[in-house]
Amino acid sequence: MGALSDLRSEAGAELEELELDLLLEALVRRYGFDYRLHERDALKRKLYALMHRRGLATLSSLQDRALHDPASASALLRALSVPPATLFDDPQEALQLRGLLDACLRGAALPRVWLADCAGAEQAWTLAVLLEEEGLLARTEIHATVGSDELLAEAAACRIPVERLAQCQRLYEYAGGTASLTVHFQIEDGHAVLLPQLRSRISWAQYNLVTDASFNEFQLIVCRRALPDFGPLLRQRVLTLFHASLAPLGILGLDRPLASDDAHARHYQQLLPQQAWYKRIA
Question: In the chain, at which end, N or C, are there fewer CB atoms within 10 A of the end residue's CB?
Answer without folding.
Answer: N
